[in-house]
């Protein structure tokens, strides 16, 4: 699976959009980009995933660059409850090996 | 009710003891997983199962064993616990769109 690089921490003001970047320059053609988050020490929560097209669901939007070497997770209106560690994972669809790196610690401030 | 449950939620045990962590799911998913998380780090895969007859090792299976008693139940055992197995343990299932659903975790301390 391709390696990902994320900033260790970010801040965001409550009500503003949170844009979390992820670099995955060695991504292969059959690898998807997945995002999960972990609030404090709770179990990780699935957010969204995509291959090459931008994706949106009720939680977030995923923007993948045309060359697929990077992506951005967008939380459109961050709330205090969005404070968490966000993990970007690149892997082959349905592969059983899902490697979580250190992620980005997002702090939403009032 | 939670879709993926884990028991116990917290456990303190002594070195050399055998301990079992249990996971149950009501989502009807075939695939189940066990992960461990050390403080400040990401998750590491211990074991995974496609169904009751299919068990596979993950990246850190040494010192652990598992049992898939039914589609809904997947247990993790530490045969002889050691202090460096102190960690947060998560069970997960895999859904039809390749998303994983995690339980609340078991905090295990080995003294």
Which labels suit this protein?
heterodimer; A: 110 residues; mainly beta; 5-stranded mixed beta sheet; 4-stranded antiparallel beta sheet; 9 strands; globular; B: 111 residues; 7-stranded mixed beta sheet; 11 strands
Compact description:
The complex is a heterodimer of chains A (110) and B (111). Chain A is an all-beta fold.
Detail the topology: elements first, then pairings.
The complex is a heterodimer of chains A (110) and B (111).
Chain A: E1 9-13, E2 18-23, E3 31-38, E4 45-50, E5 55-56, E6 61-64, E7 70-75, E8 84-92, E9 104-109
Parallel strand pairs in A: 1-9
Antiparallel strand pairs in A: 2-7, 3-4, 3-8, 5-6, 6-7, 8-9
Chain B: E1 4-7, E2 10-13, E3 19-25, E4 32-37, E5 43-51, E6 54-57, E7 64-70, E8 73-78, E9 87-94, E10 100-102, E11 106-110
Mean pLDDT of chain B: 94
| Total of helices of chain A | 0
Alpha carbon gap, first and last residue of chain A: 37 Å
Oligomer: heterodimer
Largest sheet, strands/sense/barrel of chain A: 5 strands, mixed
Distance between the termini of chain B: 33 Å
Provide an overview of this structure.
With 110 residues, chain A is an all-beta fold. Chain A contains no helices and 9 strands. In chain A, the strands form 2 sheets. Chain A has a 5-stranded mixed β-sheet, with no helix packed on it. In chain A, 34% of the residues are buried. Helix content of chain B is 0%, strand content 57%. In chain B, the strands form 2 sheets. In chain B, strands 2, 4, 5, 6, 9, 10 and 11 form a 7-stranded mixed β-sheet that branches. In chain B, strands 1-3-8-7 form a 4-stranded antiparallel β-sheet, with no helix packed on it. Chain B is globular. The termini of chain B are far apart. At the A-B interface, β4 of A face β5, β9 and β10 of B.
């Amino acid at each position: 699976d391709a390696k990902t690089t994320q900033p260790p921490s970010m801040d965001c003001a409550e009500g503003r959009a949170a844009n979390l970047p992820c670099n995955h320059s060695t991504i292969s053609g059959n690898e998807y980009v997945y995002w999960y988050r972990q609030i404090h020490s709770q179990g990780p929560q699935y957010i969204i995933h995509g291959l090459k097209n931008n994706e949106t669901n009720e939680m977030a939007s995923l923007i993948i660059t045309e060359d697929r070497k990077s992506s951005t997770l967008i939380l459109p209106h961050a709330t205090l409850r969005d404070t968490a560690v966000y993990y970007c994972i690149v892997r082959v669809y349905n592969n059983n090996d899902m490697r979580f790196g250190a992620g980005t610690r997002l702090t939403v401030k009032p | 009710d939670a879709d993926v449950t884990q028991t116990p939620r917290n456990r303190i045990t002594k070195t050399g003891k055998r301990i079992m962590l249990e996971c149950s799911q009501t989502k009807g998913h075939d695939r189940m997983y066990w992960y461990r998380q050390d403080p400040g780090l990401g998750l590491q895969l211990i074991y995974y199962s496609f169904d009751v007859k299919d068990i596979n090792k993950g990246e850190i299976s040494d010192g652990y064993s598992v049992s898939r008693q039914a589609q809904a139940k997947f247990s993790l055992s530490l045969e002889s616990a050691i202090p460096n197995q102190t960690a947060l343990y998560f069970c997960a299932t895999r859904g039809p769109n390749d998303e994983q659903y995690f339980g609340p975790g078991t905090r295990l301390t080995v003294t």
